[in-house]
């Protein structure tokens, strides 16, 4: 499966309708982004059960600002609509494959419980 170009119009639908979405925030002028692109494409072709997507930060400034992208490339991984990984910089092919294994192995009930706990703490409430 080829990568999907994400825009503010299709971002939410893509993340909602796919179990795992790996997003590469990039820009055409960015040397490291250009260097990372073939790795991203190769891993995408090898993992057809995952949605690989790209956000052009110049064309989609609102999305980039919404996710507080400060450095590119930035790799962000969503699982069941929750950001489970976010890191600026290039990731080597083997590192990306390892990340995918880790994301697939996550216990999402534990992740959701931790997210709820953090949200409650942020709101000044004690978790149950």
How are strands sequenced across the largest beta sheet?
Answer: 1-3-2-4-5
| Number of helices in the DSSP assignment | 5
Order of helices and strands: EHEHEHEEHH
User: pLDDT below 50 for ≥5 consecutive residues: which ranges?
Assistant: none
- Which structural class do you get from the secondary structure elements? alpha/beta
Account of the 3D structure:
The protein has 128 residues and is α/β, with parallel strands linked by helices. It has a single domain, classed as Glutaredoxin. 43% of the residues lie in helices and 22% in strands. The chain contains five helices and five strands, in the order βαβαβαββαα. The protein has helices spanning 11-16, 31-46, 61-66, 93-104, 108-122; strands at residues 4-5, 20-26, 51-56, 74-79, 82-88. A five-stranded mixed sheet has the order 1-3-2-4-5. The termini are far apart.
Keywords:
single chain; 128 residues; alpha/beta; Glutaredoxin; 5 helices; 43% helix; 22% strand
Short description:
With 128 residues, this protein is of the alpha/beta class. It has a single domain, classed as Glutaredoxin (3-Layer(aba) Sandwich), CATH 3.40.30.10.
């Amino acid at each position: 499966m080829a990568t999907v170009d994400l825009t503010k119009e299709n971002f939410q639908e893509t993340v909602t309708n796919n179990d795992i979405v790996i997003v590469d925030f990039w820009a055409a002028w960015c040397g490291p982004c250009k260097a990372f692109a073939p790795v991203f494409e190769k891993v995408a072709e090898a993992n057809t059960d995952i949605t690989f997507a790209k956000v052009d930060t110049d064309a989609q400034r609102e999305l980039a600002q919404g996710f507080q992208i400060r450095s590119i490339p930035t790799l962000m991984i969503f699982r069941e609509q929750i950001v489970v990984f976010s890191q600026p910089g290039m990731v080597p092919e083997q590192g990306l494959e390892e990340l995918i294994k880790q994301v697939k192995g996550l216990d999402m009930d534990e992740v959701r419980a931790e997210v709820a706990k953090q949200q409650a703490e942020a709101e000044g409430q004690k978790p149950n």
